[in-house]
Amino acid sequence: MSATHHDHHPDTRGSSGLSRRVRIALLMVALIGGFYLLREHWIHVAGNWVYLLLLACPLMHLLHGHGGDGGHGAPPDKPANREA
Predict the structure, then answer these.
(1) For each successive 10 residues of the chain (84 residues), what is the average pLDDT?
(2) In 10 A of CB 22, how many CB atoms?
(3) For the chain, where are the alpha helices, taking DSSP H only?
(4) Which of 13, 10, 33, 35 is nearest to 23 (CA)?
(5) Closest-CA residue to 22 (of 13, 35, 31)
């Protein structure tokens, strides 16, 4: 018989102090509310979808990580800006 210790903590809470069930319930309420809000205001959204798409471009630029070649995380032996 092996003696292993398993610590079970049924009341595991995140950093916000809310249990997982409460967070899932709040997420579901937000999704249902968003669905009905979009359904009621679909005419406004459909009329301005081009502007919403253009607004998404700078938001994606701001929220996306700065990975890739060069820039902030360039190795010291490789210059960040390439000049031809």
Answers:
(1) 58 67 95 93 86 86 69 59 59
(2) 13
(3) 20-40, 42-47, 49-63
(4) 13
(5) 13
